[in-house]
Amino acid sequence: MTKVTVSLIKADVGSLAGHHKVIPEQIETAKQLLTKAKQSGQIIDFFVFNAGDDLELLMTHNRGVDNPDIHGLAWNVFKEVTEKVSNKYKLYAAGQDLLSEAFSGNIKGLGPMAAEMEIDERPSEPIIAFAADKTEPGACNLPLYRVFADPFCTPGLVIDPSMHEGFIFEVMDLMENKIISLRTPEESYDLLALIGTPGRFVISRVLRKDGLLAAVASTSRLSLIAGRYVGKDDPVCLVRAQRGLPAVGEYLEAFSYPYLVAGWMRGSHIGPMMPVSLKDSRVSRFDGPPRVVALGFQVYNGNLLGPADLFDDVAFDTVRQKAQEIAEYVRRHGPFMPHRLGPEEMEYTTLPQVLKKLEKRFAEVKA
Ligand code: F6R
Ligand code: MG
Ligand code: MG
Fold it and tell me: What's the pLDDT score for residue 1?
């Protein structure tokens, strides 16, 4: 059986009215370029969408993960959209995430972000593409833990014999560039000891104990690549659902509570994660609140049927309402922690420039 690779690659290449949203012409241009790639057989299928100011390319192909042709294709799409559309209208932060002048084989490390999985297509293969704006890669830690390790979210962990053995979590240490595998339920507490620090430890993959790949998430942090603040890292995550894996509804259940994530205004604030439809995939209040879209597809012979705009439902209205209340509550803290992030996160913002100015004015305290 031929394997199918699903690649979700994204970049912020400029947006309308500040960091608000991608414009239709950017999406159209990306579609035209990917249509050509489809006609030439480079990819099997694609879907282009946006998460706030991020342009998202969902592609299927047979070339495996980290493939230079596919990454090169995505890079060229981002370049052309920047040159043809973002630059034409002087969109805000045009080409922001293209940190390098030239493409060098893999998009990771150059600014754009990727979540990719190579799979043996099951008799029926439902997948969900999650894409968030105004937050960071570790923002997927909490929902991924809840989906794959918390029976209060996922009753399948208790009821379904194929999930009952639990899962394997691969976690990246972004500071040390190391990776560790931890098994749940037996190592749940060790796992939580790491992923509770989402700015550093990020879940990159989740596999069933028999090796079946269930979820992949992007892990790059732009500030660690660039050594300075270049916008938040707005993660993407791809998951497979049903038949021995979490149900679509179990995945969505993990977003039924607007948990707090780092990002929001100037990438420097804690705020609630708000699940939204594609129509509301744009940011407003305080450049946020942080948002996530969930698009469901059926993969059939490598093709994509969909999307189902999964948060476009009244069932999530109360979650969005709760997110507004939390937003209002945390905003009242203004420039104070814990609404504003702690010093270790602020290191990658422009705050150190301001603090530097004050250094000379500090005098010794006389005993
Ligand atoms: C957060 C984000 C925005 C900007 C803010 C200031 O990820 O992108 O909140 O940080 O709008 O942007 P600049 O410095 O470009 O004026
Ligand atoms: Mg932006
Ligand atoms: Mg963004």
Answer: 66
Coil, helix or strand at residue 205: strand
Residue 15 CA, ligand 2 centroid: distance in Å: 6
pTM for the complete prediction?
0.97
The rounded distance, in Å, linking the Cα atoms of 28 and 99 is 23
For residue 185, is the peptide bond before it cis, meaning its omega torsion is within 30 degrees of 0?
Answer: yes
- Catalytic residue set: 12, 229, 232
Cβ neighbours of residue 366 under 8 Å, at least 6 residues apart? Answer: none
Could you tell me if 203 and 140 are in contact, meaning their C-beta atoms sit under 8 angstroms apart?
A: yes
- DSSP assignment of 314-325 equals GGGHHHHHHHHH
- Distance, CA of 122 to CA of 235 (rounded, Å): 26
Mean pLDDT of the chain: 95
Residues 266 and 18: their CA atoms lie apart, in Å, by 12
Band of pLDDT at residue 232, cut at 50, 70 and 90: low
Q: Point out the ligand 1 atom lying closest to the alpha carbon of residue 286.
A: 9
Neighbours of 358 (CB within 10 A): 8
Protein residue with its CA nearest to atom 14 in ligand 1: 266
